[in-house]
């Protein structure tokens, strides 16, 4: 297990140059925006406009802060995403345009290379002690707000606003977690499609 502190995340321009992305975790570890197998990042969207196109990539997006945005995804009805919406999965290689509902938002972005990796993104609200199953080989828990302590196989630690916990070789184990926090869990496995619960 590895704690990733919010202050250590890598900042870089969006692929389309119209904003900044904050990279939480990426694989391979030295991968660029062009050749990753999987990537988890945060970004602030401050104006309406098109998303970057990522050939061969599946993407899931959740709104962390702000009043929401409408995603116009090629071939689908427009979808309003808010902080209470379920994460939305869509291909990253089709035209997508964002329209802000009322001011800037911050989003969480999970991307996997189709045919090599699959992912799932879910929001969980922690209120007291709970046992969190870790069904996939790689799991990342992002503490979006609040604080949460965790324990697994004798290892312990604490997550605060913006911190993440990366767990590798997690399959068929569980994480003991306690506190008051809004978290997101990313599950990554070998596979061909991304889904959300």
Automatic annotation (TrEMBL):
Note the SUPFAM superfamilies from the entry.
RmlC-like cupins
Pfam families tied to this protein: HutD (PF05962)
Q: What is this protein called?
A: HutD family protein
| Organism encoding this protein | Rhizobium lentis
